[in-house]
């Protein structure tokens, strides 16, 4: 029996057009897989950073229970290079009873209302950076960070949080002394205005009003992350949390440290 010979029609293989179509289909399929994977990675980074912020908040409460005051920030520049006055070393910077570094709301103790800098990660025994390799920003009310005059049930808090730089919706009271005692935030994926944890240098400044609001001042912005180009005027990817006055006082009372 003679073996049959494949016909030319059956043995011609794929044409260039068929190969091109196959590659196009594979590209579409890969794209549909990779985009969700990228989104999943970004969502995981945000979730990890949120968890770190909650850990920082708990560490702040623990410090207050143990010491009777919240720690000062680690300054981001300047300093004398001494044990408690060195920028970007993770140790709170203070002299006597007062914090050192950048402040807002006054020209110096006792007129300062808020201190602004890095989370003092060494003082609190925490990790050094967020999911994108940048320092966490920390803002603390001066009355709650004074080392020699412990705060009390009647102390007033003065760190405000709003839904935007325009503060159309207040998330904490800003003017009645019942605002937050501290705000802790990550400058997010774009890292604008953050301190890089490797170089200890400031990243390029934020361009949107809401992100600029989180650099310093009386109020800070917390709102949903936006899927926009980083230079868009409405871009926002900061991850923000805060410690309210009454949460801290409640924990202090429960620990037997107040009144």
Globally, the shape reads elongated
Question: How far apart are the first and last residues' alpha carbons, in Å?
Answer: 105 Å
Question: Biggest β-sheet, characterized?
Answer: 5 strands, antiparallel
Number of self-contained structural domains: 1
Query: Which spans of ≥5 residues are poorly predicted at pLDDT below 50?
Result: none
Binned, the helix content reads 25-40%
How much is the radius of gyration in Å?
26 Å
Summary tags:
16% strand; 30% helix; 259 residues; 11 strands; 6 helices; two-stranded antiparallel sheet; alpha+beta
Task: Write structural notes for this entry.
This protein has 259 residues and is of the alpha+beta class. The chain has one domain. The chain contains six helices and eleven strands. The strands form four sheets. A five-stranded antiparallel β-sheet has the order 5-6-7-9-11. A two-stranded antiparallel sheet has the order 1-2. Strands 3-4 form a two-stranded antiparallel ribbon.
What's the topology here?
Layout (H helix, E strand, L loop, with lengths): L7 H4 L4 H52 L11 E4 L2 E2 L7 E2 L2 E2 L2 E3 L9 E5 L2 H4 L12 E5 H4 L14 E3 L17 E7 L22 H4 L6 E3 L17 E6 H10 L5
Parallel strand pairs: 8-10
Antiparallel strand pairs: 1-2, 3-4, 5-6, 6-7, 7-9, 9-11
Write a compact overview of the structure shown:
The protein has 259 residues and is of the alpha+beta class. The protein has six helices and eleven strands.
């Amino acid at each position: 029996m003679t073996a049959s010979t494949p016909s030319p029609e059956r043995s011609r293989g794929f044409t260039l057009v068929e190969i091109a179509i196959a590659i196009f289909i594979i590209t579409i399929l890969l794209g549909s897989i990779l985009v969700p994977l990228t989104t999943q990675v970004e969502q995981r980074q945000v979730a990890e950073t949120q968890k770190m912020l909650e850990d920082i908040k708990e560490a702040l409460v623990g410090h207050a229970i143990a010491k009777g005051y919240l720690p000062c920030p680690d300054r981001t520049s300047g300093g004398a290079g001494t044990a408690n006055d060195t920028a970007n070393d993770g140790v709170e910077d203070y002299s006597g009873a007062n914090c050192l570094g950048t402040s807002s709301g006054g020209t110096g103790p006792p007129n300062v209302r808020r201190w602004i800098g890095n989370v003092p990660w060494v003082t609190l025994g925490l990790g050094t950076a967020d999911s994108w390799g940048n320092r966490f920003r920390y803002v603390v009310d001066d009355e709650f960070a004074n080392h020699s005059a412990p705060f009390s049930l009647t102390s007033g808090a003065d760190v405000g949080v709003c839904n935007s730089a325009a503060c159309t919706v207040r998330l904490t009271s800003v003017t009645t002394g019942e605002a937050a005692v501290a705000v802790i935030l990550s400058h997010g994926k774009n890292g604008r205005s953050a301190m890089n944890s490797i170089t200890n240098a400031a990243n390029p400044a934020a361009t949107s009003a809401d992100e600029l609001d989180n650099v310093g001042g009386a109020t800070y912005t917390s709102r949903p992350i936006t899927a926009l180009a980083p230079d868009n005027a409405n871009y926002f990817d900061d991850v923000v949390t805060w410690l309210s006055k009454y949460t801290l006082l409640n924990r202090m009372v429960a620990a037997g440290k107040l009144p």
